[in-house]
Model the fold of this input.
Amino acid sequence: MSKDLSDYRKEIDRIDDEILRLLNERSKSVIEIGKLKKERDAGANLHTPGREAAIIERLTKQNTGPFPTDAIQSVYREIMSASLSLEGPQKVAYLGPRATFTHMACMQKFGSSAQYVPVHSIKDVFSEVERGRANFGVVPIENTTEGVVNHTLDMFIDSNLLIYGEVLQEVSHHLLSTSGLLDDVKKIYSHPHAIAQCRNWLETNLPHVPVSEVASTARAAELCMDEPSSAAIASELAGQLYGLKVVKARIEDNLNNFTRFLVLSQKPPERTGKDKTSLMLSVKDKVGALYDLLRPFASHGLNMTKIESRPSRRKAWEYIFFVDVEGHIEEERVKKAVEEVTPRCLFLKILGSYPAHS
Done:
């Protein structure tokens, strides 16, 4: 005889009980691992991104369904986040306030069990990690529409922090208000970058509505709570947090709109085999200097995924280059390329080798 509804629910309850038992069994092993890590190095980062990536990759390959493969990463992100909190508190500083896209990138990387510390500026994020008040910091580095975040690049010039990882966060802007009605919108608030990313939609659909710049998309949502005739360009998370309704979803002009974030730490992560290395260097002012800089990377078969220049602020017409290459600094080909480049530079600084976002 086929089972009825109550039989299936009893079966699910039994399975849930077993899942809970296994989660607690897993947690006991995690606690023991935390003890061993502290015995080996009391100041080491408990978070190991390479190990987490390997777990998710293994499980997604083994999954035969019907549980969706895409959901495995989300489920295990939270399992590992909760497990990591058992080893010790993980404080993460980020450019606040809550519900910004930086906050969402933090959640994607560290899950909901980490302790998040919102601060007022990118400089404050660096400071929190440098002073040991946070284990990690998360800062934006570039956007597919607006380009590089110069303030973040400039902070690396004088900071000794290392890049511990990277996160690619999809940036999807919603128009939010208390009523959820387009006709009620008489004023719009948002961050300058969000406004720029939605400019065509605004000019087409609300050409006569004034747009005001504020410090963050989350601040824009907060302001709309008490202004029924105002709307905010912000994330869906901001709408949920501040009790706003969606007037129009996904109003960004470029649907392929992503922001890359960097994770900062005082210590480097473990090598994973799928790593990226970031460098900061200044070349001598001469004909062919940039060519001489790029040639060693090409000759050693390294894929350069990014190069960005900034004024050095120390001497007129002197520039600092920020370079990303695929590979780890401990790899022979990366090491040799850096050794060849170093004599051609006024200075060279390795910002870190870290797992590439997958």
